[in-house]
Structure formats: C-alpha cells, structure tokens
Amino acid sequence: MTRDHIAFPAGFVFGTATAAYQIEGAVNEGGRGESIWDRFSHTPGKVFEGHTGDVACDHYHRYEEDIKLMHELGIPAYRLSISWPRIFPERGKFNQAGIDFYRRVLETLHKYEIEPAVTLYHWDLPQYLQDEGGWANRATVDYFVEYATKVFRELGDLVPKFITHNEPWCASFLSYGLGHHAPGHHDWREAYAAAHHILLSHGKAVEAYRAGGYQGEIGITLNFTWVDAASHRAEDETMSRYADGFFNRWFVEPITQGRYPADMIPFVESQIGKLSYICPGDLDAIAAKVDFLGVNYYTRNVVAADPSAPLGVRMLEPPADRVTAMGWEIHPQSLYRLLNWLQTAYTGDLTLLITENGAAFQDHLVAGEVHDEERIEYIADHLEAAKRFIDEGGPLKGYYLWSFMDNFEWAFGYSKRFGLVYVDYETQDRIVKDSGKWYSEQISYHRSSQTR
Ligand code: IFM
Fold first, then answer.
1. Range of the domain at 208
2. 418 in a domain, yes or no?
3. Cα dist from 2 to 73, 167, 435, whole Å
4. Residue 156 to residue 333: CA distance in whole angstroms
5. 369: helix, coil or strand?
6. At 451, is the pLDDT very low, low, confident or very high (cuts 50, 70, 90)?
7. Is 137 inside any structural domain?
C-alpha cells in the first residue's frame, strides 16, 4: 500500500536537510580544524561502537553527485550547514579553502536550480573555543558573530535563507547538562548559560546580517517536543507545564518575546542559582526580528508527576507499535497542535518553516531496493497534519525532510538511518529508498497541481 499525494498551495517549498558533520567526512582536509564532535566521537564510550564522522558519507568529495541525485529526484530546496572549523580552523585564522568548498557546493545547487538554506551552527563548535568553556563562556558569542559575518560576506550572494542555529536545546541542555552530545558535560549551570549565549549569538548575528544590507532572509531553528500530561490530575498537569517550559518555552519565548518564561524562572533558579549570566540588553538582542521561525518536530512526550523520578517528572513509555527506531512516538496530530500553539502563543503572522521532520526505521537493502513503507506513512501523515494547519490559514511555507541521505546520527553513530537515500557505508553507494521515490512523486504532484 502506498500513500496518495497531498495537494499544497502554490509557492510551498519542499526540501530535504543534512548537516556538515553528519555527512561531509574529510575532517583533516581543506585546512579544517578540530571540532568538539571530532574530540567527542574519538573519546571511547561516547558514540555507538566508536563511530566517528571522519568519513561519514564522504560528501566533501561526492557533493556533486549527491546534488545531481537531488536534482534527479526533483527536490527544489536543500538545507545544509557550514562547518565552523572549516572557516576558522584556529582562533582568528580565516581559511579561504573552507569558503571555497561551500562556494562550490552552493554554485552546484544553483546550477541544478535547488534553493539552498544554510545553517551556520549545527553543533560542530571549534575545539579551541570549547577549551575555553565553549558556549558556557560568553566570549564565544563574539567569535560566533565574527564567523557569521564572514560567511555572510563571502557567501551571502548565494544564500537566500540563513538559519543561525539548529536546535539550541540540543546544543546546550543535551550537550552541557545531560552530556549525551559533545562536549558531554553534566553541569546544569553551564547548560543554562550555554543556552543563553547561543540565543544571544543568534540575535547578534541577525543584527550583523541586517547591518550588512543583504537581500535574503534569516531565522533560527528550534526543536519542539509536544508535551501532554499523563492525566488531568493537577500534579501531572503541573509537571507537563514544566516539561513544556524545559523543552520548548525556554527557547521560543526569548526569541519571540524577549523574556524567559516567568513560571520557569523560580524553578530553574532553585536548580542552578541566580541567572547572573544575563546582562542588561541581552533579551532585546535575542528578540531581534527574524524573517521566519524554523520548526523541527519529530515526536511528543507524555509526562507524569513521580516524586521518585529525577526532578519529579517521569516520561511514559510510548506504545511499542507506534515508535520509530529512535524509540520516539509517532504522533502527527501533535505537529498540527504544535503549529497552532506556536502561531497563537508566540509567532502570529511570522512565517513558519518545518526545517526538519522525518524518521529512522530499520531499513533493509534487498536486491538493490529499500522498501520503507513505514517512512512513507510517517511522512504522509505529517504532511497531512501540516496541510491541515495551512488550510486553516496558518503561515507555514515550507517543509524540509530530515534527511536527504542516511548519515552520522550523533551518539547513535551510523546505527540509525533517517535518509530518503540509503547509504552503503562500505562502498559509499547511494540507493534511493521507496520513500525517496514517493517524496519525489509528491513534489512532482505538487508542481503539476499548482498549474491545474
Ligand atoms: O540528526 C538529527 C539532526 O542533526 C538534528 N535534529 C534531529 C535529527 C534526528 O535526530
């Protein structure tokens, strides 16, 4: 059974997404410096079976054939990220070869009429900055603005959309608090300071972009986890509100309203002490006007109050027949609810873009084919939820599927496959999965239905 295609309004953008460290490889080529993910993945015990991004999908050498494949599939937009240590391999030392590489990539995209959206930070912080505290150190904000300004100047003519940061929640809480991602720290004061500095660097980079008078658009991508209370009991409702504050509101509220959620502040201060890392003027800078908000949505969490659990919150196990290979519940209704909530509570008329949505499943390559019906179902269900929001007047203008091809899934290494294209890591062969064919047909259906 394969799914019918879904009609979207004219002008809606369909794309796919990747990130530098997850696909490029060539970590010691082109003058690139060390990133925190090189250090982390080479530290025993941090990544599944010791996998690293050293080779990844070898996209650094194969970008032309990858982009050509995107073109053959008819994909009109592509979200990629730039590796900061390719541009500034050492503090204050600019590397022209890094820019030249991305210029070649962007020119190839334009040659094939694929519109790029470029993320400046998708987690590969230069290790020399981490050696001085990384995002927990306020000085990193200025280094980010220096890097962003250089990229705007060098590549701005080829980039219609910039995204300052991908998923600040992951780059701060998951990395400095929970320790699952580089640099693998377990210090919540560092984590909250890191979150603040990432948001501040976003605001200041937006300001630098505006000052440069560029023609394109700029925004940020946040990851959202819809949160439901396990019951209507007051304790569960309270904990679900905290969980929502922790996953979502702590990030979207400063970006759109210039304040941290008031109900969360006493709770956070009880954990980490006063938020003394916030300086006068920071919140105004963070709330710099953006052209769009990028929304990454994969799953929801159901939470219950449990005094015996850490912080008194327990996440319920999702139903086993409704999860992806990541163990994440498949819940497309919550994408619809999330988009509505964002628009009503925070973003109003601001353009929303789904900058990531997709699923890992256990793919099997059999006789040169991958029959991934579950991924088709997942994508179609989420597109239907997105379409419902648009039909009701919601300002959603694009959808970038994660991911174009299988790649290095951070702490899970190569064990989780999210791609529309299967990557054989032994041979570096690319094999279009059934979902890739379906998505390609969805895009041509979209093109032809616009002209009807
Ligand atoms: O692979 C990641 C991506 O780098 C950021 N968002 C979530 C994806 C799937 O986990």
1. 13-449
2. yes
3. 18, 32, 10
4. 37
5. strand
6. low
7. yes
Q: CB–CB of 400/117 below 8 Å?
A: yes
Distances in whole angstroms, Cα of residue 85 to Cα of each of 28, 127, 183: 11, 8, 15
Work out the number of other CB atoms within 10 angstroms of the CB of residue 444: 12
* Sign of the torsion angle spanned by Cα atoms 2, 113, 219, 11: negative
- Are 145 and 201 in contact by the 8 Å Cβ rule? The answer is yes
Q: Which two tokens stand for residue 38?
A: 């090189």
Distance 358 CA to ligand 1 centre (A): 9
Ligand 1 pocket test: pick from 22, 326, 356 the residue with the most ligand atoms within 8 Å of its Cβ: 356
In the chain, the number of structural domains is 1
Q: Which of 57, 65, 80, 112 is nearest to 422 (CA)?
A: 57
Question: What's the pLDDT tens digit per position in 81-113?
Answer: 999 999 999 999 999 999 999 999 999 999 999
Q: Ligand 1 — pocket residues by CB below 6 A? A: 19, 22, 167, 296, 356, 402, 409, 418
Domain membership of residue 2 (yes or no) is no
Give the domain CATH number at 300: 3.20.20.80
Tell me the catalytic residues: 167, 356
CA-nearest residue for atom 4, ligand 1, is 19
Nearest CA to ligand 1 atom 2: 409
Give the bridge partners for 354, in sequence order: 295, 399
- To the nearest whole percent, how much of the chain has pLDDT over 70? 99
Name every residue whose Cβ is closer than 8 Å to that of residue 317 and which is 6 or more positions away in sequence: none
Question: What is the mean pLDDT of the segment spanning 225-234?
Answer: 98
Residue 285 lies in a domain: yes
Nearest CA among 123, 96, 120 for reference residue 180: 123
List, for residues 330-379, the tens digit of each pLDDT value. Answer: 999 999 999 999 999 999 999 999 999 999 999 999 999 999 999 999 99
